[in-house]
Design a protein that fits this description.
Blueprint lengths: L15 H14 L10 H6 L1 H14 L7 E7 L5 E6 L2 H19 L15 H14 L2 E6 L3 H4 L2 H9 L5 H12 L2 E2 L5 E2 L13 H20 L4 E5 L2 E6 L2 H17 L10 E4 L15 E3 L2 E10 L3 E10 L1 H14 L9 H19 L8 H18 L7 H14 L14
Parallel strand pairs: 1-4
Antiparallel strand pairs: 1-2, 3-7, 3-8, 4-5, 6-7, 9-10, 10-11
Helix pairs in contact: 1-3, 1-4, 7-9, 11-13, 13-14
Length: about 425
Amino acid sequence: MIEMFETESKTVPITKQMVKEAYRKVKANQGSAGVDKESLEEFQADLLNNLYKLWNRLSSGSYFPKTVREVSIPKANGGKRKLGIPTVSDRIAQQVIKSYVEPILEAVFEHNSYGYRPLKSAHQAIEAVAANVKQYAWVVDMDIKSFFDEVDHELLMKALDCHVEEKWVKMYIKRWLEASIQTQDGTLITKEGKGTPQGGVISPLLSNLYLHYVLDKWLVKHYPAVAFVRYADDVIVHCSSEQEAKQLLESIRERLKECKLRLNEEKTKLVYCKDYRRKKKNKYVKKFDFLGFTFKPQSIPVKNVGMIVFNNFAISQKAQTRIVEGWKKLNFHRRSTLTIQDIAAAINPQMRGIIRYYGKFKMWTLRNLIRRFHFRLVKWVLSKYKGFKGSRVKAYEWISAIKASYPTLFYHWTIFDFV
C-alpha cells in the first residue's frame, strides 16, 4: 500500500487509516463502475490523490454522494431485480461508515438473523431452518414485497437514533438514502422518503437494522414460542399448529403495514411440514424454498424398517433451472472451434461455487444437475467431431477417456465418479 497523505485537524473524526482500510475492502470486493464510469482500476491509477480528496471531504463534512447507477439483473422467476451501483468513491465512503457503525449494531441484532453479518452465513441459516422443521410442523413462508424499495427513511433514522449518537454518521447515512438514482435509460429518479438500493455497501446493514425492529425484536417480544430464521428479507417463521400459523400470519401482515411494508400475497404461504410423525391431511402445500434449497417430504429407505417419510432439503428446481439456463446462454455446445480445455476454464469457477454452496450438505443431490451439464458437453462433442456421426454413446466414451487421462480437467470430475 502507498504511503497515505498527511492529516490535519478536521471537524469529523474520520482518519486516514479508516479511509485506507475501507479502500482495501472495496478493492477486495471489486464491483462495477458507477455513473461517472470510473472503474476501480482507473481510480487506482491516481490512488493517492483520489483517497486524499475523499478523506478531505469526508472529514470536513463536505462530502456528498453522486447519483446511483441502476442496473437490472434477471431473477429466477423471470422478473428483474434492480441493483444500485454507487461510484468507487461512494463505495469507499460507505465502507468507512459501515466499519464504524457495524460493531455497534451487531451488539443488538438477534442471533436468528444471518444475512450479510460477520461470522454468519447462508449455510448456517439453512441448517437452522432444517433443525426447526424437525421441531415445528408449520411454516409461515413470507415474502416482503419490494422491500429495498419500500424502506421508510424516517423510521430507519429513528431506529438508528436508538444506537448511534454521532451526528456525522447519521448525516452521511441520510445523504446516501436521499441520493438520486439514474435508470438505464438515463432518467433521474429523486427519492421520496423511502428506499435503500440493493448494491450499496451500507444498504445490507441498514436493512438489517430496519427488519430488526420490524420483525426480529417484535417476534421475540410478542411470539416467544415460535422460531424464525431471517436472511436479509427472506424470512421463515416456524409454528407448532395450524391455528398459531394462521394467527401469526395475520399479525405479521398488520405489523408490516404499521412499518410501511407489505407482504407479497402471491408468494407468501402457510406450509405443512409433513413427515412420518405428521400424517394430517389438509389443503396446505407441503414444501417451501429458502436460499436456493427446497424443503419437502421425501421417502427414504431405513434398514429393517422400509420407506420412511422425512422432511428433507436439496437444491431447488428454480436454482437448477437458472444454472442450466446460464449454461445454455454460454452456447459452448455449438462452438466447435473451442477446445475442451476452453470449456473447462469457463465452467470451473462457476461449478466450484455451485458445488461448494449446493453440495455443502448432501453432495449426491447434485448428480442430476451434473448429468445435465454432461448432456450439453456431449452436444459439443458431436458438433466438433463429425466422425462420431451423432452417436451419443461414442461421445460419452470419448469424454470418459478424457476423464481417465485428465481427471482434474473439470472441477466436478474430482468429486463425482460418473460422466
